[in-house]
Design brief:
Blueprint (H helix, E strand, L loop, with lengths): L6 E6 L2 H12 L2 E6 L2 E5 L5 H6 L5 E6 L12 E3 L6 H11 L2 E2 L11 E4 L5 E4 L23
Parallel strand pairs: 1-4, 5-8
Antiparallel strand pairs: 2-3, 3-4, 6-7, 7-8
Length: 146
């Protein structure tokens, strides 16, 4: 007997807005929506595929009345695939993300950001071929947000 990691649920005030932001970040699409909820993903899950193997989880944004109070205990890490980390940070700022400080310090090769409702996430080193990403420092393993 086993379970699969099928979706990550994120509480928010405005599921449509936050889902639209993350669709732009991750190149996901809306795969389901209901009252107070929007689900996005890179694929449309079927029971058969989920049973057969671990597939990428979807992200489900659920409307809640309360605001975010403290630093998230869970956060997403994203890795640029076709440009530098710095250029991706600029793109994400244009989509409505903000830079944020959770005590990570300055000498880090990842950047801590927050989505439009303040949920922290990290932009890690780029996965682009070196000639596309000359502005990034060499890879050091990402350390957890403290």
């Amino acid at each position: 007997m086993t379970s699969r990691f099928t979706e990550l649920a994120v509480d928010c005030h405005d599921p449509e807005r936050v889902a639209a932001f993350w669709c732009e970040v991750l190149d996901f699409t809306v795969i389901d929506r209901g009252v107070g909820r929007v689900e996005i993903g890179s694929w449309v899950p079927t029971v058969e595929e989920v049973r057969a193997r671990q597939m990428p989880p979807t992200v489900l944004f659920i409307q809640v009345p309360e605001g975010k109070a403290v630093k998230n205990r869970l956060h997403l890490d994203v890795s640029p695939i076709d440009g530098s980390t710095g250029n991706e940070v600029i793109r994400l700022l244009g989509l409505g993300a903000t830079r944020t400080d959770v005590g990570q310090g300055a000498e880090r090769n990842w950047v801590v950001m927050a989505d439009p409702e303040g949920n922290e996430f990290c932009v890690l080193r780029t996965l682009a071929p070196q000639q596309q990403a000359t502005s990034d420092p060499p890879h050091h393993h990402h350390k957890a947000i403290r």
